[in-house]
Amino acid sequence: MTKPKIALYWCSSCGGCEESVLDMAEQLLTLQDMADIVFWPVAMDYKYDDLESMKDGEISATLINGAIRMEEQVSMAKLLRKKSAHIIAHGSCAHLGGVVGLANWFTSEDILKRSYEEVPTITNPQRDRPGKTGCKTDTALKLSPFLEYVTPLDRVVDVDLYIPGCPPTPTLVKEAIMTVLNGSWPDRGTILGDKRALCHTCPRKDTRIDDLKIKRFNRLHETEWDPKECFLNQHIICLGPATRGGCEARCINGNMPCRACFGPTDNVKDCGAKAISFFSSIIDSRDETELMTILKSIPDPAGLVYRYSTAASMLERKR
Amino acid sequence: MTRRITIDPITRLEGHGRINIFLDDCGHVDKVYLQVPDFKGFEKFCEGRAVEEMPTLTQKICGVCPMAHHIASSKALDDLFIVHPPTGATRLRELMYSAFIFEDHLLHFFFLGGPDLFVGANTPTDQRNIFGVIRKIGETIGRKMIDIRNRVRGITAMIAGSAVYPVSGLPGGVSKTITHEQQKEVKAVAADALAFACETMKLFDRVVLGNRVFRNWLNSDIFSSKTYYMGIVDSEGKVNFYDGKIRIIDPSGNEFTSFYAKDYLNHLEERIETWSYQKVLYLKKVGWRGYSDGKENGIYRVGPLARLNVSTGMATPLAHAQYVRMYDALGTRPLHNILAYHWARLIEVIYAAERMLELANDDDLPTSKIRTLPSHIQSEGIGVCEAPRGTLFHHYTATKAGIIGKVNLLVATQNNAAAICMSIEKAARAIFQSDSNENLDSNIVEMAFRAYDPCLACATH
User: What is the Cα B383 distance to its own chain's centre?
Assistant: First the structure.
């Protein structure tokens, strides 16, 4: 029997999802016995031409991580879609736009200007920009345009399976790869991980107060906290109630609150809206002035609740 | 008419890149460009965020060296809040940092650079990867390497939450301590890590230094450029990853300047190229004179070889003995050959393991005093550390309410950007010097950037 072919690619990413594959450790060696890895720029020397010369649908599945930030990432995603029977969105950026999607609170012009004209170390009197035309080499050295805004992978190609997380756990990566090897695909669009919120599997869940009422949230640098007790009991914002479980509570085990990298649960569309709705339910006031004071104890609420999911949210981007 | 050879994508590194080699009518190299076609904009979209979130936010610049950003960011917040972490917290930070340097350097030595060293520069494409390396060095040592990296990453997860993305850094300390029971495990893993580091150096001696081709290249002008070097040293001038003074030497090895992180704006400047999203750093006081080496041009290098070049040695005994041995064997100081980066990297692996063991053996490691709560905030904070790939700066301004105003990030690989362009051009000139040589694998050009272990995702934050 021929071995299935697997490819791994990255769009606008950090390499953390690649690490989540390497963290499968010895199982990575087993994978090499069970499948042919035909394209994986971080670890193997196959080039674009090798990929392009493959037959359509020849790859059993491609795991794509990273957000869609640059124009050439759109064409790469489409080429991989054509060559692959299945596409797996690997990690928060491919799934939800990820941290890269925070850029959507600004215009692309704001972003380029800051890095290439304004930072205190830059010297750029000509106000040049990457990709600016007019230089001698520009026709031969085309540079992919920086898109107006970030999108998750499924806005540019159909996605068959999602592995959530920044990064996903090696356990979930392994589960996705076993799906490819066994050919036992779940319904298209299935998101791996738990179906319920993180709180259900949180190691601190038994300490959670049921009818919690809060008049002020504590910021992380202002306070110390009990490492065994629910963060919310201690008036520290934790996004566990609005976030899909399955992350093995890594942040909680590091004695830090959840920041929603696994995104919403199956029955919720917008993770940030869910978080805001949850906080509204535990804020203990009906007085407008007092409410404003309580809200002030949550600095940058949008950046907090949408840290990983701005690009996939109902708000999506600055308009 | 000029002809172009494109290597797309360049591989076995972190991030996106493409090399364009332009050849003239005679088949000689006219010019070589390394393009980085990705950009994210952290320097903008971190504006408006809550300051205390920065160590877990900015580390998303890089999933390969997240710990470096996490530490530089935590230190920038220490500075912003004018707060000193308790000794116990600094110890835990340095322990997780040493664990990280160890496993990250090994990742490069075996997975990314390793195929060039063990499998060979000109072997077929399908063998130049970790699986080819393991076939070459044997499954026993291969599995041992995977196991020790995994266990050391387990230590990071134990101390900092997650092996990929640590979360424990806070202004004035860390969120978590370890128990006496956990300390025993750290000791055991650190001891095994040190044993493996020494075993790897022997493997390098036997297989890599024992390879005549590599040995020749190590002394060849093809892979050599005479630049300035920069790195952090401790009060005795020894290599330090976590803290110290930034030292710069000129291409002859004389100290050019040394400074603390807060003064970085006086020393470093960056420029842009319209053909890449990567900004290029150079020494402000020397200036930019194009892609050429020598004392008159402000091109400098960072990372393992640069750190060893600027220092008086390593702060731990076994690593220091290896440091002396390398300079004795190669006979010059500073060393300018980029393939010596691989050797220097391994010396740092030994150092990281020794430092991990020293910290693990400290009776006070399982301390309960891990935080100093800040009471004031100033308007700016600057943090620096030595990332595996070189010196990393985080600079924030903030409001009194603890909201980020402006952000400037100088990330390790940007320091090497100009030198990497020179190195690949030199290698390309050597292999495409006549039209008959085209069959020589363009992987040799890639070896010239790979020696630096660049992280182009970091470089285009």
Answer: 16
